[in-house]
Amino acid sequence: MYPLSAKIFETQLLAGIVLRPSLLAFFTGISVGQSLDLVLLFSSLVLAVIDWDYLIVEMRIFFITGTLLLISGFFLFPIYWTHPLAVCGLFYLSQKILPNSLGSGDLWVVGLWSFFLSGYELLQLLFVASLSGLVVFGFHALRKNPPERLPFLPFLFIGLLVLLLKSHYASQF
């Protein structure tokens, strides 16, 4: 168990404040997909803040939101069953080549997201996450202060945010 910092409390409070109106808006006209995107986005934000501070993925938050997304996803979205298997295979391969390069919490999160993302979207998400992680690491390296360990979930969140914004604005045109 980790101590509750002010940053984590504020992030959870923000996510709760934003999600409550989205749940009310769900009953008044927002699409189901958009409300589930908000749940996914803000639960990922909370997990990213915790990972940034403590280098762990809080499994209680992950399992609650993951179960909600999987149950609703069975009825609302196409499920890609082979993607989580590919993610697990690639994780196993990466652990053989570079041990301890990626945490199991990151694997759980990418595995859950891979149920709902196409292969192309999953590659885009991982590209944006890796690129943003390299930019942050490069920034720290230029300042002669390279981090010993860098959490990956905040960069996965950035990749998910870019992907959801891209899909939202691409559907506008």
Which labels suit this protein?
173 residues, mainly alpha, 7 helices, 78% helix, 0% strand, globular
Number of helices: 7
Helix vs. strand class:
mainly alpha
Largest sheet: none
Mean pLDDT: 81
Q: How would the global form be characterised?
A: globular
What is the helical fraction, as a range of percent?
A: over 70%
Strand content: under 5%
Work out the number of β strands: 0
Unreliable sequence segments = none
The value of Rg in angstroms is 17 Å
Order of H and E elements: HHHHHHH
* N-to-C span: 46 Å
Could you characterize what this model shows?
- The relative contact order is 0.12.
- The protein starts with 5 loop residues before the first helix and ends with a helix.
- The chain contains 7 helices and no strands.
- The chain is mainly alpha-helical.
- The mean pLDDT is 81.
Describe the secondary-structure layout.
Elements: H1 6-28, H2 32-54, H3 59-76, H4 82-97, H5 104-114, H6 119-142, H7 153-172
Quick recap:
With 173 residues, the protein is mostly helical. The chain has 7 helices and no strands.
